[in-house]
Amino acid sequence: MGIRRWSGISVMAVIRVAVVLLLVAACLKIIQPFLGALIWSIIIAISAWPATTFLTERFGGRRKLAVGVIILTMLLALVAPITLMALSLADTLPQLTSMLHQLATSRLPAPPQWLAGIPLAGEPMVKFWISAQNDLPGLLEKVRPMLNQTVLWSLSNGARLGVSILEIVLAIIIAAAFLLNGEVAWLTAERTIVKLGGAPAEELPDVVARTIRSVMTGVVGTALVQTLLCVLGLVIAGVPGTLVLGFLCFMVAVAQLPTLVVWLPAAGWVFYTGETGYGIFLLAWGFLLVNTIDNFIKPILISHGANLPLALIFMGVIGGLIAWGVIGLFIGPTLLAVGYTLFQHWLAGRREEDRL
């Protein structure tokens, strides 16, 4: 009788677990198309919560108005530039192709004297300039296959920009719901984490929130500032395809790479067109402002953030871009940063237990 009861209880337990697993799998299958937008909305809500609290106090407790201001700002800051870039992409690629054709049938002037005076990079740049001057068509033929692949990749993935724009809009709308019910959402998250991890996990929500805000303000915020400055310099210098170059600059800045890989070739093009004054301006603007502003902004924005390895941020940007498209630029480094921080927190807890 006892064996039957034990056997019966075991079978029922297995059935209950199987039903729960099937339900979880079905729910994951349903939300899978929206998973990127959902994760991005959570990141937005956590990052924007301090601003929401501040504006709510300034607006006399009217949270809906505060959330509306934040959502409108995000739509203008994220959706509008990406939409304009997607619309201008089709016009920019033919312009670049025509520009390359014109370069192949022309000859570069002698390198300017001031170029050799640039510290460290001056001499290699002069040698490269002279090499291009002597055999510009040959140099372009070497890079043409790579440029063709880049153009084909851009065209094939251009359609994903539309999907990414919709995901960003959806994520901002969901984030608005989280911000309007911030206390309830936060309490639910705390209870869930404590339920899963027990009492030692009580401080994990705060750790995760600090890490997300650190990445979003320190890494993404700094990249946005650098991108705005870069785009402004490109517009003043009259460089075509400014929005596309600005998007590339943002990707490079988020990946913690030097932004000169974007604006330095643009400066070379300006010199080629004969606009020496604008070329000098763009070089000075890039070296003195765009390339150095992060040294001043990032310490301010990450005043209480985590010290994250550059390789982690770089892998998050590339992996996130491959996995989720444009919104992966934000999701990838943030998720890796959260995972890294939780791992460090777990190691610190294990060390304390070992001492005891």
What's this entry about, in short?
The chain has 356 residues and is mainly alpha-helical. The protein has helices at residues 2-31, 35-58, 63-104, 122-134, 136-180, 182-197, 204-237, 242-254, 260-272, 276-290, 293-301, 310-324, 328-355. α7 (204-237) packs antiparallel against α8 (242-254) and α12 crosses α13 (328-355).
Topology record:
Layout: H1 2-31, H2 35-58, H3 63-104, H4 122-134, H5 136-180, H6 182-197, H7 204-237, H8 242-254, H9 260-272, H10 276-290, H11 293-301, H12 310-324, H13 328-355
Protein name: AI-2E family transporter
Family: Belongs to the autoinducer-2 exporter (AI-2E) (TC 2.A.86) family.
Pfam families: AI-2E_transport
